[in-house]
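Anyone up for a design puzzle?
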């Protein structure tokens, strides 16, 4: 039994894994992606047609409560839905493109440093830290620049210098 796997941690806590729970755990653990409930449900259903949404919700709640899975909203890019990922991954920030929804993960020492600084500054014990950064990916920056350009009203000719009305003689 691998102690560093979610499944291992659950067994240590005495949580019984039904086959359906196991399927969900594997999906979250192995895809490495940020899946919402619907995606998880659809993927799980491919493996076990009898699985239902209630099981998916219950399992996610159980995993959240056990601190094994993190629930993310990813800047609410996709609306109200939440996304799930395993807590076993090294701490990382989520960098979300607000246009195409692409999610990058930033791993790095600055995050650990920030955590330590917060701990020493407030005498706080950090249990969970979530960093989300929203913006535009390189591709979308190009597209946006074009869109903005297209939306701009056509450039009017510079107003002519007003001439004094021609005198009629
Ligand atoms: Zn983008
Ligand atoms: Zn992530």
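Challenge accepted. My sequence:
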């Amino acid at each position: 039994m691998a102690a560093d796997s979610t499944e291992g941690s659950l067994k240590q806590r005495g949580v019984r894994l039904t086959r359906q729970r196991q399927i969900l755990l594997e999906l979250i653990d192995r895809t490495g992606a940020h899946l919402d409930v619907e995606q998880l449900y659809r993927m799980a259903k491919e493996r076990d047609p009898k699985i239902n949404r209630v099981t998916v919700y219950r399992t996610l709640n159980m995993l959240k409560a056990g601190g094994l899975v993190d629930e993310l909203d990813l800047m609410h890019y996709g609306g109200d839905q939440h996304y799930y990922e395993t807590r076993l991954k090294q701490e990382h920030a989520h960098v979300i493109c607000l246009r195409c929804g692409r999610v990058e993960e930033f791993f790095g020492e600055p995050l650990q440093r920030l955590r330590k600084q917060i701990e020493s500054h407030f005498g706080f014990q950090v249990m969970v830290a979530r960093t989300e950064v929203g913006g535009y990916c390189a591709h979308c920056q190009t597209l946006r620049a074009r869109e903005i350009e297209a939306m701009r009203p056509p450039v009017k000719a510079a107003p002519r210098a007003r001439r004094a009305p021609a005198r009629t003689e």
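A detail worth pointing out: The pocket of zinc ion (ligand 2) is lined by residues 34, 85, 92, 94, 105 (CB under 6 Å).
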